[in-house]
Design goal:
Beta-clip-like, 0% helix, globular, disordered C terminus, histone H4K20 methyltransferase activity
């Protein structure tokens, strides 16, 4: 998960191997995707920046939390078929380190 407050500040969290924090449960949704329901903001607490997730609309019970990770080259964002179309059933073979 990446977040840029501006061109100079970039914060990044990789929750791939994290089993202790709820933030790992936020899934990706491209900006503009109707499934996107969260926004990321930097909140400073005691001069320490934290990435915090906020709902940007009402979220239904059992609805996934989804935020634009901000990385257009993620393997599950691969475009198939006609330009501007994509599939929701993409299976990738990604080996995680």
């Amino acid at each position: 998960m990446e977040f840029r407050a501006n061109k100079r500040i970039k914060l990044s969290i990789d929750a791939s191997n994290d089993i202790f924090h709820e933030g790992r449960m936020i899934n990706d949704a491209e900006n503009g995707d109707a499934k996107q329901n969260c926004v990321m903001k930097i909140v400073e607490v005691n001069k320490t920046p934290h990435l915090c997730t906020f709902a940007d609309r009402d979220i239904a019970i059992d609805e996934e939390l989804r935020y634009d990770y901000g990385v257009p080259t993620l393997p599950w964002r691969k475009i198939y078929g006609q330009p501007g179309t994509r599939t929701n059933n993409i299976h990738t073979h990604v080996k995680w380190a």
